[in-house]
Amino acid sequence: MSDEEQLHQELIRGISKQMESILNSSEQAIYIYLDDIHKVCNEKFASLMEYRSPEEWAGVEDSFEAFVDRSSQETLVKAYRQAMEKLIPSNIKVTWKKKSGGTVPTSVVLVPIAYDDHLFALHFIS
Which of 79, 109, 113, 120 is positioned for an S-S bond with 90, CB 3.0–4.6 A? Predict the structure, then answer.
């Protein structure tokens, strides 16, 4: 395992622990994204996407293609870039692809958050 891979695993574990009460208690579906491999979600988002658990959802490596409907990809990428480059939150419409292949239209609030001097994208989905 590379040093960067180990760092990213430690970062996602750390932010998961720090945000545990929000992930577990929020009435909304939530996920926190570092990159396609390093991400975490709550039970509500895993269920929305038809995964048995947040761990199963997080195990999908090509997550952008697997989770984001083609019609929403450009919108989500633009919001992510604004969050990471300009530290600007977004409120956008995103259609997700469920595990079964169906889709679900949602509203997403995407905000930049920092943990241990690294930026993450925090997504609240309704």
Answer: 79
Q: What is the pLDDT of residues 52-81, one digit of tens each?
A: 999 999 999 888 999 999 999 999 999 999
Encoding tokens for residue 21? 């009460």
On whether the CB atoms of residues 34 and 11 are closer than 8 A, the answer is yes
Phi, psi of 2 (to 5 degrees): -70, 160
Strand ranges of the sheet holding 118-125, from the earlier edge strand across to the other edge: 39-41, 29-33, 118-125, 103-115, 90-97
Per-residue model confidence as pLDDT tens digits over 27-54: 999 999 999 999 999 999 999 999 999 9
Residue 89's pLDDT band, with cuts at 50, 70 and 90, is very high
Task: Please give the CATH topology (third level) of the domain spanning 3-125.
Answer: Beta-Lactamase (3.30.450)
Side chain identity at residue 102, one-letter code: G
Q: Are 68 and 12 in contact (CB under 8 A)?
A: no
Cβ neighbours of 93 (radius 10 Å)? 12
Token duo for residue 51 = 């995964």
Query: In angstroms, rounded to a whole number, what is the distance separating the alpha carbons of residues 61 and 89?
Result: 25
